[in-house]
Amino acid sequence: MPRRDTTHNIIKQAIIKDGWSITDDPYVISYGERFLFVDLGVRRSHFPTQPKGSIIGARRDRTRIAIEIKEFRGLSAIADLEQAIG
After folding, report:
1. Which residues form the domain of 52?
2. DSSP symbol at 79
């Protein structure tokens, strides 16, 4: 499992304060024999049902999202962005 960014818990608490519920930390997507790790899966607290098997890891009302947390602390923000998105 990849190392967490230093801001992971700060962002997680901000998401919770905004009314989301964390469903997965991390949200794991299986792709054949490979596994992809998305930092957080969440859903809106007052909308309790989430479909099983959904590839989306977060939900707010009827909107679902997966949240990937990235920090750009290198000498070049462009190089960091390139590294983050591959």
Report:
1. 8-85
2. H
Q: Is 73 within 8 Å of 80 (Cβ atoms)?
A: yes
In a domain, 2, yes or no: no
Inter-CA distances, 55 with 50, 51, 62, 70, 77, Å: 11, 10, 15, 20, 30
Q: How many domains does the chain have?
A: 1
pLDDT, tens digit, for every residue of 47-59? 444 444 444 455 6
With respect to residue 1, please indicate whether it lies within any of the assigned structural domains.
no
d(CA 49, CA 60): 11
Tallying the residues shown for the chain, one arrives at: 86
Q: Give pTM, 2 decimals.
A: 0.61
